């Protein structure tokens, strides 16, 4: 089948792969939770982000670097990256729904960046203003190439979306050429302590055809594990420099860094065909999913280093699950999906998208989580990042990162191959792929029926391939070994095809080796993970337990205060006796079976929590 991605190309355009992405505006999401999120992202989140670029010091810092401002440098050494992610967000949003404000902001920002950029192409406001004698001398923690990577991705987006991007692309290419001169042809073997530039260099190569960008990305990946990160500070494990990538078997260190590195590894595979890169990345993916992934799709079980922990170290209350890690995971899984065509990667994208990622943003789009734990206790004393969503952060890596992914969600819905069209995520709207146009009607994820109507099609056979999520145990029609149901035929305008997914609510139990979750269960329905929030309970949540084998009852609500439309789950619970502590909370006597008062407990989708009273919450609940 012809390559359908002939319109505005999206964030990822590999030259090879089992599946090929559509253009970024070939999928229109029209309603449903994802469509609502895109609307709120445009109306509230991006508007807030643009204001914060000035207020948080990002633009003033660049004016200092350009010799146009006064005062001290503000914020972190990686502050520039907030602007680059914001630029990418407005570029994809302009492609989705054109707005003259967006190309104007891109052009104005590009002009400032060009004035701040050194003649040799180097650009980083912190090092130009604060440490001009330390340029590329502190790569372990400098984030210089990390910031460059986000600049490159912003430039690619602005160029592809025709959003005032030519000057921004020129700035990005000058910096990329400088990196090539220093780290490829210049013989410097340094690597940035925070991976991200690798995946960005590959995409810049795809846009421009400049092969040295791909070669540099490959070299930076090959240089991991050569001891280039010093043992002092956070150390090599934190920055994935402990082993060469082809030898490492498990995800370690800072979660966001590991996941962005994996995206770059698969990108280089897609352009070079180096099977050893795909093999090692898949090997780590399988281990990570089996032993280091939260039920919400979140990653990073330790606050110390924002890091992956040991295998099966998945505490609910101490889960870090940074919002940026959810985004990086989606990036990696999307590349693995394109490389292999297997539905398991789309399954993890869905789990992450509707849970770990969706929880990052408030219902009104104005507040964000940096950290996404699976339990919040009553006496929150440690860190405000754990307590409530916030409008912004001193380290604001997450909010603009969230915005850039939400504005480009259509990119992750469907792909094509030589046989036809594959649909990986379900939302109401339209999918256009060359001669094919499909209308999609669904109330997903609240309802499991997805109806496809062919509006246009070629007069030849082609295959419609639809993902069947692994959680759907009774599906019509059923899935094949790759996780998809496929129908090949000559499709005519007006033809319809329905997919019916099993939306029965279910109790989920943890692996026996996850010590922190023994004796607990969680509730899921469709792609949604649920949590119990104090606002919905008849008694203190910390004294409630689920009755094993309880019936799970679906309760639809059109407008839950503070939340909006939702589907709640009611279950049978026990209110356990609560007595004041009397000495140590341990006893030599055997624990009796709990006795208590029968109550109804109510669960809300995890992504909708913290939109009301900010009270106690838990995903994993004790079984009585």
Automatic annotation (TrEMBL):
<dbReference type="Pfam" id="PF20736">
    <property type="entry name" value="Glyco_hydro127M"/>
</dbReference>
<dbReference type="InterPro" id="IPR008928">
    <property type="entry name" value="6-hairpin_glycosidase_sf"/>
</dbReference>
<dbReference type="InterPro" id="IPR049049">
    <property type="entry name" value="Beta-AFase-like_GH127_C"/>
</dbReference>
<dbReference type="Pfam" id="PF07944">
    <property type="entry name" value="Beta-AFase-like_GH127_cat"/>
</dbReference>
<dbReference type="InterPro" id="IPR049174">
    <property type="entry name" value="Beta-AFase-like"/>
</dbReference>
<protein>
    <submittedName>
        <fullName>DUF1680 family protein</fullName>
    </submittedName>
</protein>
<dbReference type="InterPro" id="IPR049046">
    <property type="entry name" value="Beta-AFase-like_GH127_middle"/>
</dbReference>
<feature type="domain" description="Non-reducing end beta-L-arabinofuranosidase-like GH127 C-terminal">
    <location>
        <begin position="505"/>
        <end position="622"/>
    </location>
</feature>
<dbReference type="InterPro" id="IPR012878">
    <property type="entry name" value="Beta-AFase-like_GH127_cat"/>
</dbReference>
<feature type="domain" description="Non-reducing end beta-L-arabinofuranosidase-like GH127 middle">
    <location>
        <begin position="421"/>
        <end position="503"/>
    </location>
</feature>
<feature type="domain" description="Non-reducing end beta-L-arabinofuranosidase-like GH127 catalytic">
    <location>
        <begin position="26"/>
        <end position="410"/>
    </location>
</feature>
<dbReference type="GO" id="GO:0005975">
    <property type="term" value="P:carbohydrate metabolic process"/>
</dbReference>
<dbReference type="Pfam" id="PF20737">
    <property type="entry name" value="Glyco_hydro127C"/>
</dbReference>
């Amino acid at each position: 089948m012809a390559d359908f991605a002939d319109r505005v190309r999206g964030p990822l355009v590999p030259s090879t792969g089992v599946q090929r992405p559509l253009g970024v505006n070939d999928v229109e999401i029209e309603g449903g939770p994802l469509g609502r999120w895109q609307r709120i992202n445009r109306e509230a989140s991006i508007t807030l982000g643009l204001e914060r670029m000035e207020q948080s010091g990002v633009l003033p810092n660049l004016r200092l670097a350009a010799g146009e401002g006064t005062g001290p440098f503000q914020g972190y050494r990686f502050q520039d990256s907030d602007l680059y992610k914001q630029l990418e967000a407005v570029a994809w949003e302009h492609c989705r729904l054109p707005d003259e404000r967006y190309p104007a902001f891109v052009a104005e920002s590009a002009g400032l960046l060009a004035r701040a950029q050194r003649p040799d192409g180097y650009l980083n406001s912190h090092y130009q203003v604060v440490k001009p004698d330390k340029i590329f001398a502190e790569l372990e923690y400098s984030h210089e190439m990390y910031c460059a990577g986000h600049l490159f991705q912003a430039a690619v987006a602005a160029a592809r979306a025709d959003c005032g991007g030519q000057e921004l692309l020129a700035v990005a290419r000058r910096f990329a050429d400088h990196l090539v001169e220093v780290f490829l042809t210049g013989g410097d073997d340094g690597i940035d302590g925070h991976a991200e530039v690798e995946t960005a260099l590959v995409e810049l190569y795809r846009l421009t055809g400049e092969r040295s960008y791909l070669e540099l990305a490959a070299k930076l990946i090959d240089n991991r594990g050569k001891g280039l990160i010093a043992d002092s500070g956070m150390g090599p494990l934190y920055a994935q420099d402990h082993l060469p990538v082809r030898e490492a078997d498990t995800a370690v260190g800072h979660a966001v860094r590991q996941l962005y590195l994996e995206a770059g590894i698969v990108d280089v595979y897609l352009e070079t065909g180096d099977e050893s890169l795909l093999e090692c990345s898949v090997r780590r993916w399988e281990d990570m999913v089996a032993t280091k992934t939260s039920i919400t799709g979140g990653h990073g079980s330790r606050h110390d280093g924002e890091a992956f922990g040991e295998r099966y170290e998945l505490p609910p209350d101490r889960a870090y699950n940074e919002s940026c890690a959810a985004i990086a995971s989606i990036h990696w899984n999307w590349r693995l999906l394109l490389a292999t065509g297997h539905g398991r990667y789309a399954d993890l994208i869905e789990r992450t998208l509707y849970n770990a990622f969706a929880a990052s943003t408030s219902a009104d789009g104005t507040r964000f989580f940096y950290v996404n734990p699976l339990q919040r206790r009553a006496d929150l004393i440690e860190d405000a990042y754990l307590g409530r969503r916030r409008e912004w952060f001193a380290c604001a890596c997450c909010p603009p990162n969230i915005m850039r992914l939400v504005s480009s969600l259509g990119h992750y819905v469907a792909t094509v191959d030589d046989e036809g069209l594959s649909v990986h995520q379900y939302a109401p709207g339209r999918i256009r792929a060359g001669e094919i146009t499909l209308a999609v009607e669904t109330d997903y994820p609240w309802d499991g029926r997805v109806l496809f109507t062919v509006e246009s099609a070629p007069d030849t056979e082609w295959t419609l391939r639809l993902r069947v999520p692994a959680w759907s145990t009774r599906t019509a029609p059923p899935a094949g070994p790759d996780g998809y149901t496929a129908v090949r035929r000559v499709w005519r305008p007006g033809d319809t095809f329905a997919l019916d997914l099993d939306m029965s609510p279910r109790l989920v139990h943890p692996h026996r080796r996850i010590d922190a979750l023994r004796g607990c269960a969680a509730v899921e329905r469709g792609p949604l993970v649920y949590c119990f929030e104090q606002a919905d309970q008849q008694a203190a949540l910390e004294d409630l337990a689920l009755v094993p084998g309880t019936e799970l009852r679906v309760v639809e609500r059109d407008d839950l205060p503070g939340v909006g439309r939702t589907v709640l789950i009611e279950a049978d619970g026990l209110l356990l006796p609560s007595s004041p502590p009397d000495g140590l909370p341990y006893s030599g006597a055997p624990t009796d079976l709990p006795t208590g008062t029968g109550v109804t407990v109510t669960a809300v989708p995890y992504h909708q929590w913290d939109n009301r009273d900010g009270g106690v919450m838990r995903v994993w609940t004790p079984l009585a």
